[in-house]
Model the fold of this input.
Amino acid sequence: MSSIIYYRKSSFGISLWAFILSVFFISISVVSCSLDSTSEKDFDLPPSGYTANQPLSRYYSSSSVVVSPDNKYIAATNSDSDSITIVNAQSLKVKSEVGVGDDPRTLSFTPDSKNLVVSNHGSNTISIVDIEKGIEIHQYPVGFMPYGVVNNGDYVFVSEFGFGRVSVVDLSAGLVVGNVSVDEFPSAMALDSTGKRLFVTHFSSGSVSVIDLLTFTVVQRISTGRDTNLSQFISLNSDASKAYIPQTRSNVTNEALLFDTTVFPVVNVVDLSQFTLLNSERITLDTADEPVNMPFAVALSPDDKTVYLANAGSNNVSIIDLDTNKGKAHIEVGANPRGLAITEDGANVFVNNVLDGTLSVIDTSTLRVSAEVILTNTPLNEHVLEGKRIFNSSESPLLSTDNWISCATCHFDGMMDSRTWLGFSDGPRNTPSLLGVKDTLPIHWSGDFDELHDVEITIREVQFGDGLISGTVNDSLGPTHAGVSAKLDSLVAYMESLEIRSSPYNSDIESIIRGKSLFAKHACNSCHRQPFYIDMKLHDVGTGVASKEKNSHGRGTKFDTPSLSGIWMTAPYFHDGSAETLEDVFQTGTTHNISFKMNEHEIVDLITFLKSLP
Done:
């Protein structure tokens, strides 16, 4: 784009008029960047690539909590408060809470410990925060849904979750100076101490992309197994010979699912010299420690002999001895711990409990929580906040047996796990996104949940929890469950708050217009009706197999019309995931098998229209 908007804030509580103007101009800047970012750009690679002018003293990982290189400060993101908090590492007193962009996910200190770089997942920007002044000094547009962020002092590296891309920002100019396409949903990143290699995890696939910063190309792709998921953190050992990646393995092919055969919490270990998975060193947490849910962030002791692991669903930290691969301690912390960092001397571990707005401090000599720091006052409505905690938790027997599974295990942030499960009682089921679900009832592919409160049945039958309602429950098509349980009402309040992100694929206006005409020409809008592209009816579209469909309400091979909103990110498609891509959709089943009626240009236009839908 031709210009970048810079702005400053004098304090966290900026005046109203300044706030409105800032949001207005930043919104314009971000929108223009998002539209422009869909096209490929040519960048001139510097002679030394995107390596730093000065060597790094250590490796850096993207995280929601980090310790400054000079060990003076701790910083943590507060995603629901749209802020970060800077804490004095010695006194544990809050230095400042600093407003940044929408939904900050991860942050990274510059090597000189003077500034922080923050990825703002919701506003498609990165923030630069001055540590000493405790203010945001710049906010720069980047690509869609930035997640991980690391920097080497000269350049900032940003994983663009929505684009499947890693971008480079010149820290001094605030300009995007390069990008490289990677696999879908890039999330966590680690920059090794040589400053020449960048490791990127992919949220749903479990793969790791290795980027050479001298050439800024992907030189390796490492698989941790097709069944691995929730890969949003990567930590390197002291000599960068190994990477530790907390993940969840999905047992999708098991046709006789029980609660403890659905998902498995692990830490996978990768050899970074051979770019291979070290199966023998995998940490299987339910046997190494005890059953936990959603291992999410990891840190190693300075001697590489101990792993500290934040479990976001079960609200605890596992501490594993790497010599024995057995647990040394199991520590309860706050709600939804999504980040974890360790001091250079290994004396303290800091845990960001994002749904409590607190920081737990673990003394590694006693393996106990020695302090808790209040980071923020989360501004969410109390019922929505309680529901969000419930959605993300497996901690209570009401929600799951043995801390095993939470709603977020398959629907992280309300999204989908990109999996088709073969062992559900109804038959094979592709996990749908819950974004915008309040507007697209009924839910379930069989359309047999006519209200969101029916998730009580999922808690009991899939998560094997005791349930949020006392006693028996009604049939999903029977009397309402609303108002029966305050906790269930809160869970539904959170689900109703889940909104669909606008599509980043909306720049080719002419193709979108042609595609919209084709959508009408082929009568797609007879079932997928605006504004939510549903008709709340069941249809047999030729994808079901009668012998596999076992719905208790006799739906057979008829399925609820799914919404097309946000379809750009919800592959695979159909109830059984039988279409890997939108191109495949038009060659599958009966109703949608219309590719032979269009030429290749028309297919491209139709898909362009579909991918543009908000």
